[in-house]
Amino acid sequence: MIDDFSAQDLSAVEEAVREAVAVEIMPRFRQLAAHEVDQKSGPHDLVTIADRLAEEHLTASLTKLLPGSAVVGEEAVHADPHVYGALRGDAPVWIVDPVDGTRQFVNGDPAFCTLVALAHHGEILASWTFAPALDELATAVRGEGAYVNGERIHAGSPRPGEALRVAMAHPLYTSEEDKWTLARLDVPGVAARPCGSAGLEYLKVARGEMDGLAFTWPSAWDHAAGLLLVAEAGGAQSTVDGVPFRVDRDNALPFAVGRDEATAVRIRELLRGA
């Protein structure tokens, strides 16, 4: 599938992402009116006009670049949960989070990004993580490495003897059971904190700025781009049942991500209470 995509095609995807952000997101950054911000499932689950219009923009441009492809976007799935089923179909799928870190975007915090990944039969083939307010574009193509603004990045391994820096699912978005499970990371040798934009947390792991992640929710748009980015930077991931997280199936949760295999395993075992 990805073999059919040339360097020119990959560049066209980047341009499509940049254009959607330039047209629909950045003109509204720190310019949102009250009526342009809504709640979905609760006061912390926000959506803005920028989320909706950017996803519509990307849906049109990406399916034009790859005829016959489908789009699984956060806002489309919120409107019709059946859209998520495309991840288990035969068509290639664009997985889109138009504004990852909407809470930050609404608050005028630059730590938000746009996430796009291309998947086929559950395999993530390419990804784009664009943080426009930070002027950073992270890209990954399966088997070809991870890059930020054109320079290759490597996750490396944690320094021996230092506490693992782990970002975990934010308490605003977790159940009481999830909180109890994540509390297992409160042990000597682990410095855990709530995560911000999932896409930017994955980027920090891929760069070696964070050692690991622990997530309790499965939404493909939050994870697809980052999982490939970390994998191509040399990192690893695993659900609590010891198998990789995949976007085309139900996964045992939570799941762990690490700069290297040993780190991912350590976080996973802590989450299991092992």
From TrEMBL:
UniProt keyword annotation of Zinc-finger present: no
GO biological process: inositol metabolic process; phosphatidylinositol phosphate biosynthetic process; signal transduction
Needed co-factor(s): Mg(2+)
Enzyme Commission designation: 3.1.3.25
SUPFAM superfamilies: Carbohydrate phosphatase
Entry-linked Pfam families: Inositol_P
Residues where Mg(2+) binds: E74, D97, D100, D222
GO molecular function terms noted in the UniProt entry: inositol monophosphate 1-phosphatase activity; metal ion binding
UniProt keyword annotations, A-Z: Hydrolase, Magnesium, Metal-binding
Reactions catalysed according to its record: a myo-inositol phosphate + H2O = myo-inositol + phosphate
Protein name (record): inositol-phosphate phosphatase
Gene name of the encoded protein: suhB2
